[in-house]
Target: CCHC-type domain-containing protein
Amino acid sequence: MSYEQFHNMTSEQKDRMCDGDELRQRIRQYEMKENNNDAITNNSLKRHATSERPRYSNDDEIICDNNELNTGWTTVRSYKQKKKFNDKDDRNPSQSTRTFTNTTHQRQGNHQQNVLSNNINNNSIRRNNNNMKISNQALVYAADYHYSSFKLECESKLNDKKQGVKMVNELMKYIKIDFLRAYPLFTKPLLVDLWWIDSEGNLQMIIKTTELYIYLCNKNRYPNELFNFKIKPNPPAHLPPQHVVILKWVRNSIADNDIREELNMTYKSIHSISTMNGTLNDRTRHVKIELLDKTDYELILNNKKISLMGQMFDVAEFLPAPKILICGRCNKPGHTKRICQNSTFDICRRCGGDRSNAEAHNDCQIKCHHCGGQHISTDYKCPLMEEFRRELINELKKHPEKLPQHIQLFIPTEYRNKEDKTKYIQNTSSYQQKEQNLNLNNQSIWPTLTYTSQDMNNPMNINLRESVRLLNNELQGMKKKYENDLQKLKDKYKEHLDTLNQTWLIMHQQHQTSQQMTIYEALNKIKTNNNDYNEAIHQLENQIEYLQEAEFFFTTHINSLQQLVDKQNEILNKALDSLFKDPNV
Model:
């Protein structure tokens, strides 16, 4: 037993395991079952005791023959037990499952015989398949999750495995830095689980690591070419169930696009929104929401509600239903084509003919070769598929240990037992002890177990149980404290990153402002102010005007002086001439 399983057990279960009560209880139940089987076998009347429940077949049908109806015993129904007798649910609610003598209830015999005949006619297919066996291969296929492949379409087709190896390694090398930045707590090797080159020369990859699967679902994270090959990525259309939630009972008046627009305001990591198949009715439906961010996924599930269009809608996690393993040759469930012994050729799913010539069956008549219905042979509507699916779910419910620890399977409504309202199948044990066919009636095989119930009140046992409880509580407290501290650290780290981003943005803005101011000052120094120049020009213009005016007056004055000088010279010349002409003067 692992520590995790022991940790998840209650205190009462731990005490019972330590005291051996569970083992003794199983032994008693097995002995009582053997004794009851012997008593029923030895009873000549072959009827059930009133304290026991009636035994039915795997399909909840009463199996008897006409001779038993003619005897002195008749099966009568009550309100307490309501079983489905046929597909149309023809039953009388006033009937009982207990057995009485035919002295006072003979009138019920005819009705019981009619019900039996209806069962024989309506459930012939189901009765013929009661003995179908569910192989271990079918159980493993139904329990495991089947990852879709990533396809890389290459412009130059691949034809060598070495090229595929180099492309895969180059892709992992290209995304490693950005992937670790997106998932800083990821410590596993960054590898592809499976890859191959298909018939078209393209690369196909299977990735089972959830983080890497989610990361590569974004086409923008692929390079344009790998190893000199231009590629076109085609990731899967849907995410794994670990990133899918269900929005329940959404009114049909609310379209998927309206849901996407409103939820995108709060949750930025929505990958796709679609209506679930089989949930649409006249008024409501279930909507499947796929989220890339695990934080948004956990936040939605923890809230359990989503506000949409002013209303609150329930939210639940998405659990896949068990898948059916179908043969590619005979189209029957439960095995593969490699081990098929039902047919020597491939049978067409549409018409049931030989599929050797595939082109002839592209538009053939649809008729199931299992039941003759108007559907393909692999449709879940086929009674054979429906019955196999029912038996498969019942087998998984009987053996949940065959499921992996991290897998939960959803049980569709039509395959649930009326008495057991369980909606999913889950492996709650870490291992399953190997069954041994031993004769429990032989006392020499089993050692004598000393039953000491009075030791339960022993002070030492009480102290031991109390110590275990205290340690368990302390461990729970430490675990909760660690989770709280880790969450606080994440919040603090996120807040620190936000602060750094804001600081860097402010510093960047300040740097830009400083650069602009420096450039502005430099331009002001290089380019003088126009207003100062205008004032100087105005003063210069005034001075020029003054100078021009002074020049005008000066020129006028010079001209006047020149005229005066000319007149003086003329008068002087006349005076001199008169002196020289008159000598007596």
In short: The domain at 146-234 is CATH 3.30.70 (Alpha-Beta Plaits). Residues 243 and 291 are 5 Å apart (CA to CA). The longest strand covers residues 244-251. The mean pLDDT is 76.
